[in-house]
Write a structure and sequence with these properties.
Strand content: 25-35%
Mean pLDDT: 97
Structural class: alpha/beta
Largest sheet: 8 strands, mixed
CATH superfamily of the largest domain: Zn peptidases
Radius of gyration: 24 Å
CATH topology of the largest domain: Aminopeptidase
Low-confidence stretches: none
Helix content: 25-40%
Distance between the termini: 10 Å
Order of helices and strands: HHHEEEHEHHEEEEEHEEEHEEHEHEH
CATH architecture of the largest domain: 3-Layer(aba) Sandwich
Amino acid sequence: MNELSHLLRRAREMLPKLVEMRRDLHRHPELGFEERRTAQRIVEELDDLRLQVHTGIGRTGVVAILEGAQPGPAIGLRACLDGLPIQEATGASYASEVPAVSHACGHEAQCVQLVGAVRLLAFMRDRLAGRIALIFQPAEEIDQGAKAMLADGLLDLVPLDAVFGVHGHPDLKVGTIGIRPGSINASIDTVTIHVRGHYGHGAFPHRAIDAILAASSIVTQLQSVVARNVDPLEPAVVTIGTFHAGKVSNVVADQAELTGTIRCASPTVRVLLFDHIQRVAEGTAAALGAKCELEFTLGIPSVVNNQRLVERVRRELAPVIGPENIVEPPVRMGGDDFSVFAEKVPGCYIHIGFADPGSNRVLNLHTAEFDFDERALAIGSFVLAAASLIALGQSR
């Protein structure tokens, strides 16, 4: 039995302890930059492992460093701390005890998987050549945590040679992982469109310029941006999510405001989308006598996996978990600010199967009913520990 097979066996043996920690964190979710109890619970879990622990990185983040016996590369392993402003409706015995806040994206699983991974690696401290940095990141759900940790000097504290992250995948069965080179999650940007017309009496619309009509037409015409300007093989989304206009039923509105999300996998498509959204919105407004102003807010880039890391992980995990359990998923249009780390150092983001193999239940992230098969905790712990050893060249 090789090193990675030993890791997998030990990870499965840890499962009861991992489940206990997961359920505690699940009962007490916290929103972005408020994860004080979560961070303290993690620090307590790491207390007996003789790590260098740094708190308050990125406001509420924690960085813990496992030093190997010999010098070598520095590998980062990242997990997210925060929950979502969603009232849980699972009915589980371990359901959230915090009103209107829940772990509806599985971030508590990431924290537990990272603690599990370092417990596996700590047994090997005397044989490790390098450093493992555990990055417990706040505020992923608001796309601010990774930036905050970098601004607080994360890469000065521990200059990384590679960084790994995992995320539960609701469509993959437990025991299966998803990994692909290149883009694996989308970029996230926001557009705000201010439409300006001229108010008037609703009985005399010909004397006004209707901002609602112009804004409605813009919403409709924006559907052509992806459909007629983006290569059908390139994933991209433009969704208008809010529409605010008008105050009185018998007055033609003179202003309207739209906001929307823009998502894609390719930096080239990202620029193309901005350009076409602007041209379509301005042209449509002008055709109806109105004017519009657009504000683009850059969010986070797409998550781009380093090809060399992906190939090494796939090659070395296949004999242990079975090549049939390593799949190449399509790009997910959800984003993750792990991309901010992966812009700085080579990164590898891996999907961990969350679904019960014996059930046909559909899991959806960011919903009140979301839950997952807890056996994924052991798999995620193993994958993070194994990826570290693979990156250090010590997996055999």
